[in-house]
Design brief:
With 328 residues, the chain is of the alpha/beta class. The protein contains ten helices and 15 strands. Strands 3, 4, 5, 6, 7, 14 and 15 form a seven-stranded mixed β-sheet that branches. Strands 10-9-8-11-12-13 form a six-stranded parallel β-sheet, sandwiched between helices. Strands 1-2 form a two-stranded antiparallel ribbon.
Length: 328
């Protein structure tokens, strides 16, 4: 059987713990595409899997990686939407850190002619997640205020643009002046350094009426303050846990203000659920992407052979926007 180069994490640890291996090249199932990978989006979930904090869903490969771009080189017997030679970008639950990967045809999108592989690999995970959390769950509308934490992350930088595109007001948090300024340039009305100021006190001074939607990546450390800044009927969507995952919480604000507290993670959802998510992304955000009204914010391109450097950058929090690996 043909083989390929891939990256696994058998022992868990730091960026240097990732192992370059030669494995059997996969064969597409009935509704799958076999992709010759050209570029790979790097995500926080990859770092968490590498450290042992986020296992792949049952039955999925232990090869890292959740999104990619590349060329269709083979198709399953039931595939109807794509043919060999087409350029696509798409979602996978695992397996993107490899020379070849399998993508379900419903989770693939044809790459527009003007886009590079690198640009395409930076889009789908960020835009699907931000769309689902801000709009499908968070129900953000024009004229509302949204608080976006971790503004320098790929999803944070995307969410700022999306919110501004629908004419919502954005308040963002980050940890360094460079990221605060970049958040403002993307459209944030206010950018708060959470290391220097209590974001909840700052927000209530800026807008005593409170916030309509909070998009949170931090977890327990921010939970009570997120509840505090939400106005009645406000919505908080939890997208990640970058800090502690347990805290003592006063639930009374949820009751008294009739708040909605929602959670979202993309990776473990079913093919059917992801198909609907991708369809919503394509319908709502491909037109403004093609018109360059919103764009993936790129931070670094890193060669596949230097995967440890890509993870080091993300783990150190150096990036504002997306890190993409390029495959020879």
């Amino acid at each position: 059987m043909p083989t390929m180069h891939a990256i696994r994490t058998p022992p868990f640890g730091g960026p240097e713990s990732m192992v370059h291996v030669s494995v059997e090249r996969p064969e597409p199932g009935p509704h799958q595409l076999l992709i010759k990978v050209a570029a790979i989006g790097v995500n926080r979930a990859d770092v968490m899997q590498r450290t042992g904090a986020y296992s792949p869903p049952p039955g999925e490969s232990d090869i890292l990686g959740l999104e990619l771009s590349g060329d269709v080189v083979a198709t399953g017997t039931e595939v109807s939407r794509f043919r060999g030679g087409q350029r696509i970008f798409g979602l996978v639950a695992a397996g993107a850190y490899a020379e070849y990967a399998l993508v379900h045809e419903q989770l693939a999108v044809e790459i527009p002619e003007a886009w590079s592989y690198v640009q395409a690999a930076a889009v789908i995970e960020m835009f699907c997640t931000a769309n689902e959390t801000l709009f499908t769950l968070g129900e953000l509308k024009a004229g509302e205020r949204v608080l976006i934490h971790a503004a320098g992350s790929g999803i944070g930088s995307t969410a700022i643009q999306m919110a501004r595109h629908v004419k919502a007001e954005v308040i963002a948090t980050a940890s360094v002046a460079r990221k605060l300024e970049q958040a403002r340039r993307l459209g944030a009305s206010y950018a708060i350094n959470y290391k220097e100021r209590d974001f909840a006190e700052e927000i209530m001074g800026l807008t005593p009426a409170g916030i309509d939607v909070v998009e949170d990546f931090i977890g327990a450390a921010y939970f009570q303050r997120n509840l505090a800044v939400l106005r009645p009927l406000g919505r908080m969507v939890s997208v990640g846990v970058l800090g502690p995952d347990h805290a003592d919480i006063d639930v009374r604000p949820i009751l008294y203000k009739r708040l909605k507290v929602l959670g979202f993670t993309l990776r473990p959802q079913s093919i059917g659920e992801k198909t609907a998510i991708v369809a919503r992304f394509v319908k709502r955000w491909m037109p403004p992407l093609l018109a360059k009204q919103v764009e993936p914010v790129m931070y670094a391109e890193v060669p596949f052979a230097k995967v440890s450097e890509a993870h080091r950058i993300m783990e150190a929090g150096e990036n504002f926007g997306k890190i993409v690996m390029t495959v020879p």
